Structure formats: C-alpha cells, structure tokens
Amino acid sequence: MMRALLMGASLGVLASAAQAAPNPDPRDEEIAILKAQVKALNDRVENLEAHEATPRPVVVAAAPTLPPPPPAAAPVVQTSNWSGGATILAGKPSIQSADGRFSATLHGVMQFDVAQYLQADPGPVTADFRRGAAAADTAHARDLSSGSNFRRARIGFDGKVYGDIEYQVLFEFGGAGEEDAGHVQELWLQYSGLKPFHLRIGAYPPSIGLEDQGPTNGQPFVERPAEADMTRSLAGGDFREAGEVWAAGERWYANAAITGRLVGVVNSQATGVSQPFDSQLGYIGRLVYLPVLTDDALVHVGVHGAYVARPADAGGPDVVAGRYPITIQERPELRVDGTRLVSTGAIDARHASVAGLEFAAQYANLWVEGEYDRFTIERRLAPVGVSNPRFTGFYVEASWILTGEKRRYNTGNFSFDGPPVDHPLSLTDGTWGALELAARYSDIDLNYHPGAPGTAPPADAVRGGDQRIVTLGANWYLNPVVRFMLEVQDVRVDRLSPSATTFQTPVGAQVGQHYHAVALRSQMAF
User: Are strands 415-416 and 434-448 parallel, antiparallel or unpaired?
Assistant: First the structure.
C-alpha cells in the first residue's frame, strides 16, 4: 500500500510539472531530484516488504469505510471430504462422503402374505385328535387360520463411519400369525480394519448355516426350511445378542461366536419375554470351502455347529426340577397362522448342541442346496436309565431361473441371494423381469424312542413329532425391489400323543395331520 501511495504521489507531481512547463525550464533539475527521492523511497518500501514477518492484505479497490476484519476462526480438523452425494442404487437411497469413509443406506422391507389352508373340517375335540405343539394349541391345530398378515415390515439403515467401522440399525414390525410390536431386529457394530478378519458385536444372527445367512428378501420360498430355523434358534437366530469374529477369502469362510439372550420382544398380545435369572451362554462356529469356483459353476461344502454351555435359568434358586428348560420346536413353513405342530416340549437340560453339514452347487441358472443337522440334549437330574435325546432334520431345495439369470453368491457370509434382474418389467421395452421355479423337501424328526401307537410313552420318550413338507413355488421378480411369490405346500405331521391327560386324547393316539396350503407373497425390499 505504501509503495502504491508513493508512486501515485510522484506521478501526480511529475504530471503537473510537465503540464506547467512544456519547454525546458530551470525546474527540470528539481524534478530530477524528486524522481531520485521517489526511487529511493520505493527501494526502501520493497526492502521492508521483503523482510516483513506477517504479510499484509493488498487493497485492490478503495472504499470509503471498511468494517474491521472478523476474528480468526478456530482451526478445523478435516476428517473426511464431505463433498459427497446421494444416490439410489437398486432402489436403496444412500448418502456417502466423497472419499467413501462415511456412508448411510436406508432399507425398507414389506412382505405381505395371503394364505389358504386346505385341511379337513374340525370335529369335536373328543373325536378329532389333531393337536398342536402344546395342549393350548388344540383348537388352532384343527382349524388353521386362512387370511393374511405382514410377515415382515422392516425399516432401518446401515453404513460405515471412519472407513473401518460398519454398523446396522434395523427394526421389525411384522410377525408370525399376528404382527408384533416394533422391536430391534438387528443392531450391531463391526470393525473391519484387520483384513481378512472382522469383529462384530450387538444383536444379529451369528452365522450357522446356508439358509441361516441367506437374506429373507432373496430366499426362493416364503419361509426358510423348518430344519434351518430349528438349527439357528438353538444358540443363534434373529435378534440374538452376540460377539463374533469372522474371516473370508476367495474360496473360504470361518467364524466363531459367543452368544447370549434374545432381545426382548413384545408380541401382539402385549406379552413379552420374562427375564431369566441367568441368561443363556452359547458358542457357534462355521467353516466353508468352495472346491469349484468358475464363471458358470460353484460348489459349496461346509460344516457348522452350536453348543449351549448354560441354558437360561428360568426357575431361579427356589426351583429344582425344570430350572433350565430347552425346547426344540418349529412351525410349518408358512406363518400366516403361527401355530406350531411339532415340539419336544421343555426338557430340563445341562447342555445342548447341534452339528451339521451343508452343500450347494450352481451351474448357470440351475441351483441346488441342502443341509443336515443332528441335535443332542444332555438332560439334567435324569433318573437312572433315562437317556439323552437326539433329533435330526434335513432339507433339499432347488431352483431354475427361466429368464437366464443365476442366483447371486454372497462372499461376505457365503450364502446365496436372489438373482439380479437383467431386464426389469417395462411394457414400453417389452421386458418382463425374472421368472424362477423352485421345489423343496424338508423333514424334521423330533421323536425319540416314541413307542408304539396306542401305548404310553417310555420313560425317556420324546414324542415331538415328525414333520415332512413338500413345497413347489414360482417367483416373479419385476425389478430388484418388487417381486411376487406363489407356492403350494403338502404338509404331513406324524406324532403320537405325549400325554393322554394333558392333550385330552386316548393313550398313544395319533395327533398329527395331513393338509395342503396355498400362499401368495407381495414383496417390496430395498
């Protein structure tokens, strides 16, 4: 600024002098002296600016008055480039920072089921001996509820923060038979900065099988096979509190988890889960390998297992028998009616375990999958001669996608998801989405030394029932968000009455049944 003022003043003096004396004048000598002084002053200003510690702003345009400059802002630590953006990919709204270290993706699921149960008309309870898992289910077992329900109604989001920390928050408002009050479905944190290892803690289903980890939005049938639901419910399953470490490579997967209680849920009757005196303590593990992995083919083999080291203490210190109950039971593979038809009943247990095998193969648009599991319950305070019961279950299922897509394989948890939709429904373009045909056979046998029909059960008998289901299905994926599912079931339950008194039947009467069901699901999931 000083230099500009000096130069302006000197030029003004020189211009005035030039205009006043166009011809040689004695004052020319004075002008020369002034020029020399201006140059000397300019040199001094340049020397001062070169050595000045704090740079001063350069005024480009003068103003009559200027407000004082604002105080200096506090320094800001920049953690991420936030000039990111919002996207919608496959129907999922998402926001993320430009460097990808922060993200949040919104998820929503609607699965609305309509079903018709085709079973024999109910007779009087004294002549119609069809029964449910418990004596309280007698009426419903003889007249399953045709109708509709929201099987799943979920809202939540997931993403990551600071790059290596992932999270998910998911709430559920659907249910089996009737919708439940809203509750935590998944709520967890995961650290993924030690590749290939990942550490997760919270409420979620720890990995214990193919169907267990397959997303319900992409499964080929309305429900998982009953065998898989039985396996996952022993020490894992939905909204299970757990801590887990897992790792995966291109062809392998391994995990180990410590599990506890289930998150409390209030159902449609406003009844919840009673707090135990001590929560269950369990362990889960799974190993998977892919011996074949090409562009067109994949073969999956694996083993998994769970061990309940301490069943939940439901009785407390004042209860002796029945203090640590374990019940293995499952519904038929349709939940419009939530009635269970097979159950071991509560068994006072020291420990319980399940071990299983898993297999899957895929070639182009043809896919097949199956699992086998064996359950053991170690009784507590068992009389001499009363053995520990064992139960089994398995399923085999397959699908063929008529439009040529193939089911996606999830390398994060080594399970199968629904197919991509290469040509979403568009009447303008003449495309119709993806079409899939599927079939499944499942069998869960909860009988142990059941004895003969018409006789009382032996001392160590468990008359839980044998449930066999054949399912045929067709799936229409309009686009990655919307699909419709149609399936037909043939259900057979073979079970002898566990107690003539409790179930109001003759001794050893057949309380199972045979019926058919037709179901339609409308799904929106993103």
Answer: unpaired
